[in-house]
Structures are given as C-alpha cells and as structure tokens.
Design brief:
The structure is a homodimer of 718-residue chains.
Chain A (H helix, E strand, L loop, with lengths): L22 H14 L3 E9 L4 H13 L12 E9 L5 E9 L4 E7 L10 H13 L1 H10 L5 E9 L12 E10 L15 E6 L4 E7 L44 E3 L7 E3 L3 E4 L2 E8 L3 E9 L2 E15 L11 E3 H5 L17 E10 L5 E23 L4 E18 L2 E10 L4 E9 L3 E3 L9 E5 L2 E4 L1 E11 L7 E9 L13 E7 L4 E3 L8 E10 L6 E6 L14 H4 L8 E5 L22 H6 L9 E11 L9 E13 L19 E2 L39 E2 H4 L3
Antiparallel strand pairs in A: 1-2, 2-3, 3-4, 5-6, 6-7, 7-8, 10-11, 11-12, 12-13, 13-14, 14-15, 14-24, 16-17, 17-18, 18-19, 19-20, 20-32, 21-23, 22-23, 24-31, 25-26, 25-28, 27-30, 28-29, 29-32, 30-31
Chain lengths: 718, 718
C-alpha cells in the first residue's frame, strides 16, 4: 500500500466478494474518507459492502461452474464507512461513505436523517463512567445513598430506550448502577447490589443531565413509590459466580469427557470464508452488527439459501414503573452483535477440533482492530440420526447425526447470547439461540415481593421481560424465484362422503402472493414452506421446498399503542414475507437507538404490498422467550435454548442422510463387560478397524424376531 | 429354589422393592399360578408389583434416612402374572394373578372384563404369518394380484384398531402386506412394494376371516376406488437402506468423532437399580408395557419426582378411505414398549462409556426371558451450560452442560421411537422422544397423487398421520402434597394507574383445585408449575416448584365423535391433573386393543372431580407430531425430536449448576494453531493438568472492556 500522495488503493487481491475486509482494505477506506472529509471524525464501522444481488449472483454462477479465473469480472470490492462528523459546537452528523477499494475513492456519501440515533460505541460506553465521576449531580445522588465505603460504583451503560411521548431527546445514554465490593477480587458480582438510580447522559455533550430515581417498593406500593434512599444495600447479599469467590466447593465428581477427532475434522475451510462439509458448501461472513452471517448455502451442488443471519433482537422489560419503560434494548441495532462478540476460548466454548476465525472491526480512529476468535466452527454428535430394525432378521441399521456448528457468543453488559448455525447430514439447518448471563435486577426493599418480577437475591428484583428475536432467511431454493406456502392440517367433520369414519383430516396449502405477516398457529400445525414452484419433485410431484414450523412464541406483550411496542413492529408477527431488496437486512430498521417507532423494518417492507410468489422473496422468522425469572436464574442463568429448524420438504428424492455410514464407534466402552463386549452383533460388512467408515451394525431386536416372509410361489400354489 | 412339593419360594433376597424380578422370582410366580390354575395357560407378562405408595414411601423414608437394615420392614415383594386361560372351545379368558414371592402363593386373582382385548403377543405375531400361509382366502387374494415370483410376501401384523360402530369383533389381528424381492439380501426393504390387501385374522380361532381390499387411487378418485388388482407393483421401485444394497456409495469423508472418558463415567449404579450422578439419585425400573421407568428421583437429598414414565402413544392415520380408520396403534397398550425394546449396541446407539442393563420378560410359557441391553445409561455433553463475561475485566466464566441419559429404543414393525430421560446439572429433567424408522405406506396407482399423504416412492403413498404421546409425571416436590399452578403472562392495556407507558404485563397464577384438563396456550406463555404450597422459597417467598411449558402440539384431529377419537380421550388435552391412585398408570386406560372408547384413562380419572390442591397429585403431559410425510422421510426417516423439559422454578436458592467447574477441556484442538494455542487466557486457578477439575477459564471479551468501577470514596468527595 502506498502512503504517498496518489490515491491509496488496496493491494490487488482476489478476495471473495463476500470476504471481510483485510487490514489493508480498512486502511484504504479510512484514508479515502479522511481525505475528502476535513473534520474531526469518529469512526463507527468499516466493513465489506455486499454487492447487489444481481451482480453477485452472476459471479457466484461462475464460481459454482468452476470457471472463475483472475480475469473473471467481479463486483467492485467496496467498503462501507460509518462515522460521525463532530462540529465545533459538539453537534454530530452521522455519515456513511462507500469507498471503492480498487481506486481508493469515495463513490457514495449518505447523510443520515438527523432525527435518528446510531448505535452506541465503545467510546461512549467508556465516557459514561468518566462523565459520571465528574458529575456533581451524580455525586450528589450517590452521596444521598450514603453507601458504605467498602463499595465501588459499577455502571452498566445502556441505550436510552424509547423516549416518552413528547420528550425531546438529543443523543442520550443511561446507566444502570450497582455497588461493587472493594478489596475483593475484581470479578466480584456487583449485580447483587443494585442502586435505585439511573443517571442519564447527553452523549454528545458528555454531561449528566438527570438522575432518574427508581421505585424500590413491592406489591403493596404504587408505581411512584420513592425509596428512603438510605440503607438500600443493607439487606443485599453477595452472589458470586467466579469459582474462587464461591461459598461452596466446586463439584469434584465430574469426570472428563473428551471429544477426540484423531483424523481431524470432516470439514475444510478455504479461500478465507468457504466451508465445505458433508455435501454442504457455504461462506461465513462477519459484520459488526450481525455477527456471523452465512452466504450462498448449497447442498450437493444445489442452492438452498442466499443468506442467513440473525437480524434483530429486542428485550423489553415488563415493569410498568417509570423509567423502566426505557429498559428496552435492541441488541443488534443499539449495540451490534459483531462488536459484542466474545473472543472464544479453546476447550471452553466447544469441544473437539475447532476452527476459529477473527472479526475485522475498527477503533474510533477507523484503524483496523482484529477481534480474535469471534466465530468458531466445529463438529458435534447429536445422537441417533436414523435407525431401523427389521424385526424379521433383527438387522439394525443405525447412523449417528453429525452436525457442523458455526457459533458466536455475544455479551451485552449483564446478558449473554450464544448463537449457532447448525448443519446436519439430512439437509437440515438449525438456528439455535441460547440465552445465559445475568438477569437484570433492580433494588427492592427488605421483605417485599413484587408483581413485576421475582426476588432472586435479597434486595434484588429480577424484572419480568421478553427476548424477541428475528432471523432473516433469504431462501434460494434451487434458484431465486421462490414462493412461500403455508400448510395447515385441519379437521374434517365426519360425513359419509369424504370422511365416513371421522379419522380423515385435510392438509390445506396456500401460496403467499403478496408481502404479508403470518402468525404461528400450532393447533393447525401451521408449516411455512419455501418452495420453488418452477421445479417439481419427480417423486411427489410437489414443488421442491424447505420448511419450518414457526415457534408459537409469545409476541410483544406491551400495549400496541406504547412506544415500546411501536419501536418493534417486527415483534408482532411470527413470520414476515417480503420481496427482496438489496440492503434490507434489519427487522426493526437500521436505526433503533432512541427510536419512537420502527422505520424501514419488516412492517414497512410488507406494507409495499409487493408480489412475492415466484419472486425473489425473503422470510423473517420472529420468536422469543417471555422470561419471568426463577431464583435458579441467579446469579448466572442456565441456558434457555430455542431452535429454528429449516428442513428439506420434497427438496430431495429420499433421505439425504441415507449414505451416512452406520459406523460402530469402537472407542465407546461398556461398563462391566470387556471392550469388545458381546453386545454388538456386527454384520459381515464391518471392516473391523477403529472408527472405520463403511461398516454397518446389526443389533438384535428382542422379542419381535422370527416372523419371516411367505413365498409368492407358495401361496400361488406352485 | 426348591422344586419339591412344598411351596416354591424365592431365595431370601433383599432386592429393592422397585427392582425387576430375578429369573428365580419369575419362576416362583409362574409355578404359583400353574399350581392353582389347572388349564392351558398362555403367559403374557410377569413383572414386579410396585408396592402401594403408602407402603413404599415408608420404606423409602428409611432408605433416605440411611436406616435400612436386613430387619427393616419392607413391602411384600410380589409379582403380577398376566395370562390367558385357553378353554377347549378355543375361547380365552384373561386373568391376572398377584403372587407373593416370599410364600410362593397367589394372593389375588383378577378376572378381566370379557369386553376388552389385551395387548398383542409375539406368538400372535408369528401365528399371523402361519395362518395366512394356510389360508385359502389369503392365497386367493395374492393370486389375484398376479405377482411376479421374484417376490415373497412380507406381512406386518398390526393391532386391529378400533372396530366400526356396530361391528362385532372377537379378538382380531390385521396384517399390512408387502412384497419382498427374492434372491436378495434378506434385509431388502419390502415397504417399497405395498400390496393393496389387509387380511384380518380371528386371533383366537387362528383363521383369516376377511381380506380388506385397499383403494389405490389418487386425488381424483373416490374413497371406495377399487384397484385393478393387476400390476400393482409394476411402477414400484426398490428403496433400500441397508448399506450393502444402496445404489450410491457411503460417504467417505466423515472422520471419526470419539467420546473418551479416561477416568470412567461420573455416575455410579448400585443395588441393581440405583443411579447416582451429580447430586441426582434415582432408580431405574423396566416394565413390559412402559419400558424404562424412573422412580424416587431426588436432587441433593430433596425429593423431586415419585415416578416418571412414558404412559401411552397413539398413532391415528388420517386417510379417510376404509379400512384405514383402523390404522390406529396404541404402541404401549396394544404392543408394549418394554417388549418392543431394542437390544442396544455398543458404539452404535450412544457414544462414550455406557452402562447397559437388561429387561426381564417372559415367554409364552411364563419362563424368564432376559432381553439384553434394553436400557443404556451414559453421559453426554450438551454445549455451554452457563456463561458470563464481565466486560470490565474480560473475565469469562463458562461451564459446559453435562447430561446423564437413560435411553431405550423401541421398534414397532416399520417405526422406531427413541426415548430418553436426560438429567442435567442445573436441576433439569428432559423427556426426549425421537421418531424414526420407516413411514407406513400404501399402494397408489402410477402417476397419481393423493390428498391423504405424499408419494414418497413410486407406487408408495406415505399416509398423513399423527403421533400423540402421553408422559406421566408423578411429582413429589419436597414431599407428596403438591399443588399444580398455571401461570400466564397477559397484556395490560395502557392506563395511567397501573401501566402508564404500556410496557407492563401481568403474570397470573392460578391453582388447580379440582382434577382438570388444561390446554397449552403458547400465546399467553402458559406454564405449569408443580409446587409444594407447604414449603416457601426463602429468597422469592414463593412455593418451591418445578415447571414445564406444555408444547402446543396439535391434538387429535379426528372428529370427536369418531371411534378413533373416542379411543384416545387422553389425546384431546395437553395436560391432565389427577389425584394419585395406585396403579393408575395408563393415559388411555389399561386395555386399548380393539377398544371402542377410552376406559379407565385420564379422562375418567379427571371425571372423579377430586380435590387436587395440596394433595398427592399426578400430571400427565400430552404432546405430539402431525406427520405429513416428506419425500426425505423415505426410506428411513431422519429423527423428529421432541423435548419436554421439567425445570426447577424457585425450588433452589440459586442456580444449582453454580458449582460445576468451568474446566478447560485440554483435549480440544485448534486448527491452524498449536495445541496450547494462545487463544485461551487461563486465570491463576487453572491447575494445568489435562482435563483436571476445578480450573476456570477467563477469555477476553473484545471491544467491551475498559469501563472500570468508580470509588464511592471518590464520588463522596473523600
């Protein structure tokens, strides 16, 4: 890279159009913006521009045809640069530049509506603390609490949430405050000591403008109940989770369970982002907002998905006492899942043979900042994949289900989310979310209980809340022209003509012809099929498809007229079907921070009333968890798991896992018999080598055997 | 054991009251019955009588107090003997004797209502084939099909299902018929060649009394469409699943994944049935009807469940064309899950270190017949159990979730079910079912499709059907007097007094005071809590409880007035709450075979209108799967998984998995870095030995670190 006067351009590379930026490319983009924008800039994000689908698809066609060479035309490689311009009066303007990396020049500039607020940055998080320390208003509030000097104050900066109706809000940040025991391990859990104040900062002016006082009452107290502001921590008790601070010994009786892959993993990663495993082939991207993103997912050479991503999550709290209506995070839009991604650790976050890869982020000066090990890829065993025993011969054929997991984990102050895309050998893709971490607590008076949450530790009320997620599925079922069908199983009243004995039921399929929202309907077994109406399965004569059953999660509980609800229109339906548009990626719209309502999200996309049958269509699945905390969720909650399962439905001509070898795992050991115990009746095809492929097990099935076949010749009387 | 003239008694043993019978004990019971019943007997089952709860609880109290000795009074050990008496006119009477094993004498005799039919036996299965071969009626039907002599006939005997209204039915068995390619591997898949006839046998007379002809038409044909009876197999194609018959090679690129437990398992099994693992302690029983059953489940010395079992499953088919209304199996009541249990194979059905145990069954002469390895017990890793990273210090504490699995697998002709009770370290118990095996198909004419199913192979229509399961939960939450609560999360309209900003919602708890049925209600987040109202959690001040969220599965689709629906009243609600009664174990009643309606099942139990709050109460959870087959379900379907999760809810005073060591697994390997790669920042407490317990990992969390604490002294101005 040249640092001279000419245009700074990235080294000529043939990175894949979907690859993350290299450090060099980040630097090119940064310089390009600095050159044309002579002002104080605060950089937020610099990341790869995904090419318009129309352009990218052409390149991908060549790629899949195996005809890509150095001369193959490819979409221009570009970077998106998101940054603030800070003016002398400390006001900010939010700009977004597109930089062409080959020429090192800005090719597009977007000035963002001043009515919206962009996501929080790490610098703003840090500044919150500093501003509090300097704030007389904050110091006074702390003084009034008359805390013991054995405590420090720990502040979790939060997005401000939705402003109240009529409230004038420049850029704000709020802070949830806790006391932290001093002279202790720095990892002592401060959440056990919640303080009943929330300082509010004018983020750009770097000034605490208000201290919100929190009610600490119980069931018997009104919404506005004011704390005595004294002795608020006297009844609180430590609640440690780091092992050296625990008041009980760690379990000694958990013996090691090791996952060993002596021949290495079954997947390959090449070309920086291309994963191939068990007939699957896809690319892994990583964005500051979404974390890991999957692209161009194929199975056995056939297209399944164009793109798969976590799109948004909102966490509204159900405590009606002000200002808790503003405890509503949008963890993707307000913070950024990629920016909050954990650096994963070998042997801790997954077992076996792991491939990690790094995320490219930037610091506030726009310089590349590599976040190590933000995504891990590994295989795991998920029990039996399919099994059948012929009771006549006792021959059992059983395969195990191996999965490939692409995982990332994010920390948002108190909470953790573990996201995994899991591929299986039967053509399935599961999007798994695990919620863990520390539930959000507020102070409650001694001896009281509350209808708004559960007392999980003395003085600590864990407030009832919801987590509502949106997954964006851009299907490409054997091509980009797809139709979404709903399929319901409905009762048919007993009648002589069509249901004489009453056992019949009907399966009703309906195409979605216009962009729409769909509610989950478990009692009709509502299934969503993403089909290619132009390609018919030759066996079933139905369109090839992938399906999922939308989880009938409870949706947004807040009053539809509330700010909380309006900010998250996406959280009002389980499935949204929209016509594809480039860069329409975010269920709640691009700007969620301090939003008053959802703008540019899925509800707006649906409102376009586009034709969506036999079109390039996008499906958004919304699911959630109403979390009324248990005491067992304290101090760190056991994972709550949700799975969205995408499964082939007449996409293939039979079970695609039929060719998975039913290999006996010879490393397994039986207790009380020798290692080659007599339990396992292996048929003649077993190759006998440890973990060899291609062998098959036959296990006797008791008490059903012995009913053999009858010869046609016999019954025919020959 | 004495074979002399005196009473034959079992050797003096101190087997646990819940243990399966020994071979000696079976023999004692058999002899006791043979002695008093001078007739031709066909034995069905001989198994342990579980003592009345009132008696057993006293013994268990002593056991838990550690005061059991040889002199401790214990409930009399008894065997239940179920058998047919065959009279000279070939009529059968079904009797049930209770034999006291200490005295070797019958202490109770029950004559079963002649209006019911007991389950099918293996002998009856075998006889079905023999009777068909001898039947001129059957031979004629086969002859009319004019099959190629390259075929054999394979018959799957099935329960007769529900008779039609007004039909007079002695004991019947029906047979689903398929053609099986000759001169082939005996494991060639005959289900690919379905024949359009169902022979019906008078089971006691051993005579084919009717051949039902099956429609083979499509959407355009009426219910009664008759097949041409010619060339019904011409368009059928082989659909093999045993690997040596596959027309494609097995995958070569799946590398071994071994689970090694170098120090052995973390559980112990003692006393024939007692399992102890990670603070859990319970007994595993095994019955001919239910398969594995769990008893007396405790965590850390506290009672959680008295008994946990699979109770029933019904599989109604939704094809309205007669006689498919009689394709409705009750796999527990008609067949018996224990008797259908697979003999599991090391390294095939689970990985790692496995403890198998055997089931005691009997042959038709009442002699003990040990079914080997019907239950397996092993540990597995289920990913991250809990995790939190303090963004201030970057200290990550992460534990993995280890599970203990008690698994059994049943084969019922074409279908397989995998049942597992899974315990975790956070106090959770999951009842997992996996459906696999071969979908039931019937013949369909060339080129046709049908509204009643999906063509999964040429000529093979996989009919739409449901699987509806019932799990019986006998809670003992810190004692036997429990109350069931429902808890729903409900919106609250925005209003100035209680919900000024509209974000609030309310959680409504209601006790179930009378025996009742409850519908799942996902959109109100309906949660069922099994609580002990006499014991209050000192932290939350709520009753200690376990909870589950009933899956909103689609329930019985058949018309409520149909025989199919009436036979399975249990399948009409998701949760049933009943007052405990000894031996009330079966959701659809004891006798399901050929039943016209459910008798003595949960609906009848609820109709007693018992008081159930603060009583010994039983909870039945019903869930299911509407299975409209995919082509991918053929020829053997990938597992469909359902999980029922029982979780503590204010049972403990914090996360019970808090003391699980966050051990780094040192056998894990990173691709592209050395084995001690730099990724994993381990804190000072790590002991550094391979897979040692007690160590804890700290992994850096990127981009959130650095916002430290504030000293109270500083803000207080000291």
């Amino acid at each position: 890279m040249s640092a001279a006067n000419g245009p700074i351009v990235a080294k000529k590379t043939h990175k894949h159009p979907l690859d993350q930026l290299s450090g060099d490319e980040v630097e090119v983009a940064r310089q390009a913006v600095l050159k044309v924008r002579k002002a104080h800039l605060i950089f937020r994000n610099i990341y790869t521009v995904e090419p318009p689908k129309a352009e990218l698809v052409e390149f991908l066609k060549a790629e899949h045809a195996g005809t890509v060479s150095a001369d193959t035309p490819r979409p221009p490689r570009q970077a998106r640069v998101q940054y603030d311009v800070v003016y002398d009066d400390q006001s900010h303007e939010y700009l977004e530049s597109i930089v062409d990396l080959a020429t090192g020049s800005e090719v597009n500039l977007k000035r963002v509506d001043t009515g919206v607020q962009q996501s929080l940055t790490l610098d703003e998080f840090k500044e919150f603390n500093e501003v509090c320390v300097e704030s007389e208003m904050f110091k006074q509030a702390i003084k009034e609490l008359d805390l013991d000097e054995k405590f420090d104050i720990a502040i979790d900066p939060w997005p401000y949430g939705g402003p109240d109706v009529g409230e004038i809000t420049p850029r704000y940040t709020q802070g949830l405050c806790f006391a932290k025991r001093r002279h202790e391990n720095p990892d002592t859990n401060h959440y056990a000591f919640p303080l009943p104040i929330i300082p509010v900062m004018d983020t750009n002016k770097k000034e605490i403008i208000r201290i919100d006082r929190l009610a600490t009452g119980g069931t018997e107290d009104g919404l506005e109940y004011g704390t005595a502001d004294k002795n608020v921590l006297e009844h609180c008790r430590p609640a440690e989770y780091v092992p050296e601070l625990l008041d009980i010994p760690l379990r000694k009786d958990l013996k090691p369970l090791n996952v060993l892959q002596p021949d290495g993993p079954s997947f390959t990663m090449s070309d920086d982002s291309l994963i191939e495993w068990q007939k699957w082939r896809f690319r892994v991207g990583f964005t500051p907002r979404e974390g890991a993103v999957l692209h161009d997912v194929h199975y056995d050479g056939r297209s399944v998905l164009y793109r798969l991503s976590l799109s948004e999550m909102t966490v509204p709290y159900g405590d009606p006492r002000p200002p808790f209506q503003r405890k509503q995070a949008f963890d993707f839009g307000d913070s950024g899942a990629g920016r909050a991604a954990n650096n994963l650790a070998l042997g801790c976050d997954c077992l076996g043979v792991i491939k990690y890869f790094d995320g490219m982020l930037v610091d506030s000066e726009g310089r590349p900042s590599v976040s190590k090990n933000v995504v891990c890829i590994h295989e795991q065993d998920n029990g039996i994949g399919w099994k059948h025993t012929d009771f006549r011969t006792n021959r059992a054929v059983v395969t195990r289900s191996r999965e490939l997991v692409v995982q990332f984990i994010i920390t948002l102050a108190n909470y953790e989310y573990i996201f995994a895309f899991k591929f299986d050998q039967a053509g399935g893709i599961t999007v798994e979310t695990r919620a863990t971490g520390i539930v959000s607590v507020v102070n409650i008076d001694p001896g009281k209980v509350s209808p708004y949450g559960n007392v999980v530790s003395p003085g600590a009320l864990a407030q009832n809340h919801q987590h509502i997620f949106a997954v964006r599925i851009d299907p490409a079922i054997d091509g980009h022209a797809n139709t979404i069908f709903t399929e319901e199983s409905l009762p048919v009243p007993m009648n002589p003509k069509t249901n004489p004995f009453g056992n019949g039921y009907e399966v009703v399929r309906k195409p979605v012809t216009k962009s729409s929202a769909i509610h989950a309907s478990p009692f009709t077994n509502l299934t969503v099929k993403m089909a290619n109406p132009n390609k018919i399965n030759p066996i079933s004569q139905r369109p090839v498809a992938y399906k999922f059953i939308p989880s009938p999660s409870q949706l947004m509980l807040a009053d539809p007229e509330s700010i909380v609800a309006k900010r998250a229109a996406f959280a009002h339906h389980h499935v949204w079907v929209t016509k594809y548009r480039d860069e329409e990626l975010f269920a709640a719209g691009e700007f969620t921070n301090q939003s008053l309502k959802e703008i540019g999200g899925v509800a707006d996309a649906v409102a376009r009333n586009d034709k969506v049958d036999n079109e390039d269509v996008v499906v958004w699945n919304v699911f959630g968890l109403t979390h009324n905390p248990r005491v067992e969720d304290w101090p760190v909650m056991p994972v709550e798991i949700h799975q969205l399962e995408l499964k082939p439905a007449d996409f293939f001509e039979r079970n695609p896992a039929l060719d998975v070898p039913g290999t006996k795992n010879l490393s397994s050991v039986e207790i009380g018999r020798d290692e080659n115990g007599t339990c396992c009746h292996t048929d003649g095809t077993t190759n006998g080598t440890a973990n060899g492929n291609g062998s098959v097990q036959a296990a006797p099935t008791s008490h059903l055997q012995g009913t053999g076949s009858i010869r046609v010749a016999d019954v025919n009387g020959h």
